[in-house]
Amino acid sequence: MNGHAHPDSPFASPEHISIGAVVFDRDDDMVGMVSNIVGTVISLERPTGRQWHTFYRRLRPATERENRQLRALAKLQRARTQGMKNRTDGSG
């Protein structure tokens, strides 16, 4: 393959992925943020707290739309968390 990325992967190797990058996992059909890299296994997480691991070749960079979706999910999660705090503070 001349040292290039697998035909199904835009990443030539895990070294081309950085912690904090927003990527799309084609196996889980979900966007997430890279939280750790160990060998060829990439750890991902979402603002909801969901965490999972996948092989780097199953990832692609997130589109701008997917980036916006992840930011919107983070904002919604913060609002939900704040709402739960407000309800528990006032219902005691």
Task: Please give a structural write-up.
With 92 residues, the chain is an alpha+beta fold. It has one domain (14-90): SH3 type barrels (Roll), CATH 2.30.30. The chain has 1 helix and 5 strands, in the order E-E-E-E-E-H. The chain has a 5-stranded antiparallel β-sheet with strand order 4-3-2-1-5, with helices on one face. The longest helix has 27 residues, at 64-90. The chain is elongated, with a radius of gyration of 16 Å. The model is unreliable at 1-5 (pLDDT under 50).
Write the layout of secondary structure elements.
Blueprint: E1 22-25, E2 30-38, E3 41-45, E4 51-55, E5 59-61, H1 64-90
Antiparallel strand pairs: 1-2, 1-5, 2-3, 3-4
CATH-level-2 architecture: Roll
Secondary-structure element series: EEEEEH
Per the CATH scheme, the topology name is SH3 type barrels
What overall form do the CA principal axes indicate?
A: elongated
Low-confidence stretches: 1-5
State the separation between the terminal residues, measured CA to CA.
64 Å
Number of domains: 1
Total of DSSP H or I helical runs spanning 4+ residues = 1
The number of distinct β-strands equals 5
CATH class descriptor: Mainly Beta
How would you characterize the largest beta sheet? 5 strands, antiparallel
Average pLDDT taken over every residue:
88
Share of helix among residues?
25-40%
Strand order of the largest sheet: 4-3-2-1-5
Strand content: 25-35%
Derived structural class: alpha+beta
Brief rundown of the structure:
This protein has 92 residues and is α+β, with helices and mostly antiparallel strands. The chain has one helix at 64-90, and strands spanning 22-25, 30-38, 41-45, 51-55, 59-61. The N and C termini lie far apart (64 Å).
